[in-house]
Write a structure and sequence with these properties.
about 20% helix; alpha+beta; Protein Transport Mog1p, Chain A; 7 strands
């Protein structure tokens, strides 16, 4: 799967989330192998509120595969990151991370896909 040639196919922004996030946005991507993925996020007003939103999301996942600090390009901690499976079959995966007052998410369909999209977004 080559995500260097993935393309944003739809964007939306300006909403509120059910858990208090504001200025929510979503971008849908289609990878070169035809896989649909999405990246979404919302502002929570403070790093503490973004952290609470992350914890609420983590309570709803089937498996937490990896959890730790989110680092910037210089290795400084800027938030928390978690790689998760949304169901026990492993057919849906996600990465959640905080960055100051933001909570962002990459969804679907496999751990391999979400990790590849995360890597391409970081470059």
């Amino acid at each position: 799967m080559d995500l260097s040639h993935s393309a944003a196919v739809a964007r939306g922004c300006g909403g509120l989330t059910a858990d208090g996030g504001r200025d929510a946005w979503i971008t849908a991507f289609k990878a070169s192998d035809g896989t649909d993925l999405s990246v979404s996020g919302a502002e929570y007003g403070s790093p503490q509120q973004a952290q609470k939103a992350l914890l609420r999301n983590l309570k709803r996942v089937a498996v937490i595969i990896e959890r730790g600090a989110r680092l910037d390009g210089e290795g400084n901690k800027i938030g928390e990151r978690a790689v998760v499976l949304l169901n026990k079959t492993g057919s849906q995966a996600a990465i959640f991370w905080t960055d100051e007052d933001l909570l962002q998410k990459i969804y679907w369909p496999t751990q391999r896909h979400v990790l590849a999209l995360e890597k391409s977004l970081d470059n």
